[in-house]
Specification:
mainly beta; Immunoglobulin-like; 22-stranded antiparallel beta barrel; five-stranded mixed β-sheet; disordered N terminus; disordered C terminus; signal; CarboxyPept-like_regulatory; Beta-barrel_TonB_sf; cell outer membrane
Amino acid sequence: MKITLSILLLAFTSLGMAIAGPGTVRGTIKDAKTKDPLIGATVLVEGTEIGAAAEVDGSFVLNNVPAGTHKVIISFVSYKTKEIPEVRVESGNTTVIETELDEEGTALQEVVVRGAKATNTEVAVISEIKQMKPIAVGISAQQIQKSQDRDAAAAIRRVPGVSIVENRFVMIRGLGSRYNSVLINDVITPSSEVDTRSFSFDLVPSNIIDRMIVYKSGSAESPGDFAGGIIKIYTKRRPDQNFTEVALTGGYRANTTFQNVTTHERSGLNFLGLWGADQTLSSAFPKRSADFNTLSNVERADFGRLLPNSWATRQTTASPDLRLAVNLGRRFEIGNVDVSNLTNINYSLTNQYSEIALKLYQNGDVANDVFERYTDANYARQSRIGVLHNWTFRFSPVFNLEWKTLFNQLGNTETVVRDGQRVVDGYDVRNYSERFENRSIVTTQVSGEHKLSDLTKLNWITGFGYTGRWEPDWKRIRFQRLTPTGSEAPAAFQAVAPNDPNPIDLGRFFSKLNERVLTLAVNGEHALGNPADREPNRIRFGVYGERKDRDYSARFYGYNSVGNASAILRGDLGTIFSPQNLTGRTGGLTIKDGTKDLDSYQGINNYYAAYLSGDVNFGSKAIMTVGFRGEFNNQQLHSYVVNEKKELVNNKLFIPLPSLNFTYKVSEKQNLRLAFSSTLNRAEFRELAPFTYFDFNLQADIRGNTALKTAKIQNLDAKWEYYPSPNELISVTGFYKYFKNPIETFLLPTGNGLAYTFINANNSTNYGLELEVRKGFPNASSTFLQNLSVVGNASIIASSVNLGQFVQGPDLSGNNVTYDLTGVTDTKRPMANQSPYLVNAGLYYAGQSDWSFNVLYNVFGQRIFAVGNLENPTVYEMPRNVVDLNISKKFKNNLEVRLGIQDLLNQPVRFSQDFNRDGKVGKDVTSRAANADQDIRKFRRGSYFTLTAAYVFGKRTIIP
């Protein structure tokens, strides 16, 4: 509380400082005849170096103008220069200029203008959204910088209808990540996960983002595989000035930093997300478990000694987080070619410790009848290296060439020590999970823009993407002992070594994924009629092709005892698996291969699309865009069964996807929009692959289903939007979606633990309302209010899934069977991961004395985390209120210092079981009454404090 009060005091002190100092001149510049904004018009205060260029809406802002009377000079190519004398600027106040320029009387023979319009400001994004035909929302680099969001995952949750799962996966309109498409620079991104169709947004650092646009309605130009939204991330293209910037951030997390934590050792350069060669599985191991397990105990033990004895844990102190960013921008000319380069290098090393309360219940007639009770000491150390390297070559006003490369390397070392009891069985339990995960993502693209004539434009993109994910040597072990009674001294813990390997008890897991994607896209646009018209009719056309190849393999080895090895299994974790204990003889240990043939697979996906769309204007106020997109997809999945490669899936499907977007201009500031589109949702390789993966946190198996079908979706959207000023917006959007054969998770009705798969439900619906407000106060009498802006959005969403009476899914042996749901599960429920409401709000202040601050708020409604059935209740993720506070100060335009506090309230992350099955979790989660509910997992992440210093070297403004 003292820290919070001190920060708030600092914020209000900052406001007081902001009232004094120079003044501001802002305004708009338009064409005197057409009233169109003059983008790029130059505004200069005579006798000073203070100037600016007008943005896409004609607006400009001149900060730090000395108090007094000045002459303002406004100029633009082919327009008469205007001088405005006697412009009075008062200390701490804003002077507003709204003016128009007249065209020159004589024609120019040839004018070549080199420059790029701003796309990363709030005004630019609002203007872009206003002019789009589909319904969309977005966030600019300018707003991201104000919020001090570290990555795309944190930034995008400011967008209406968007929430985040596990701090990295995006949900739009209550629909999970599988229903959202993600594109980086207009190329579809590969999935960053093995088990789900998901893109991990925490891989994209915020300081490389130019803007993010979220399309809520479909169009012919966009991929058809979506239902929630299409997220387009645009990285920064070219600098408007030469600069070198270095930023250093230190982070302190309550409950983690300087705390004593348990970790384990990994060889290699873990701080760079890399590992040593000794963590990989030796090529000497037989490829198939059937061959390995026919060997003798002694022979298998010899192989076991090839695995390093790296089980020992150690105590350490969690260090403060460290982040380093280096940004470079350069512009120069090679002959007549304008060349620019933007390079961004990010490095971070962060820590997270949580004490997680975990309970499993018997789920009989009495609530909170505990079966197992644990406390997880979970410590994770994460490293990330990110590189953005972009080149732009402007050969002429009609031909641009770009080369963009994005690389991310992520390493995560996680240690979990689970202490607790199997209450019913009367055992104390201590489990260990020692895991290292590495992810690499590379995308590189070459694109060209051609202006074939005043009426026709053409652009193309060719790209290559690679995703790699490795889990080298994930070690898991379970110890247990009889729970002592009375004054009885506790016995020693003994490791559980079953006769056959299983993922719960004792073993080592290795997996690797490699996915390669080749893409080619060509897009064209042709204007009909006079190109000088403000909104001529246009025809758009294009093709998109993608080839995706994935290889996934997993190996699992379990330890078992030969005869009675209790003396060894009661030993210290660091000595149990010493080479002298792996003898394969009586009283010693050996290993078995628990891998199944289906634990590895190869996937191939060929995707081709073509589209055509056109505009139809109904007078000056109404415009309709009609589009048609056709998508052909061929999805294949292969796996080896008894040394024979078999084709498990071969789905060839062509789907027509019509779309319609209609806009009616009520006025220059108001639009009404209607949209219809047909879209689809394909199963991912992992959802099809019939291998079983154990989730340590869920205590559940996850397996694929080769019988999955492509889901088809019909989307309706309606939106009213009002733009009071260039940087203000009020909008209300309603939507309705109908799904045929939606892909949902399904809890298999097994009597042996939890096992999830993916199935096609019969149908489902999703509908709701969204409200967005962006409000400033530029005409207020108070200087404080003039520099204040409010951003807020709220969504109310409802959904319903109708499973039908029968579903197709795998049984415990992996064979597809038909499940009759009678007496097994509810056939109607909300869609998984769907939140009934979302609220985001932000208060931003930017003063003339280079102080700024913002306060941000976020909350989502309870949503299904794990689908249940009549035997195991559904688990919900519960709401939590999140408040962030950020303060920054600039010094002489070269140094900026930022203080950030995330998750100020530090409310618990809570997953609760709907024991009474009424579709909601009540406040009473401890009662044993029949109508009570039950907490499954509960923990606090800890409030997070960061201090950043960013310095710009050698900054030089370049006039385009």
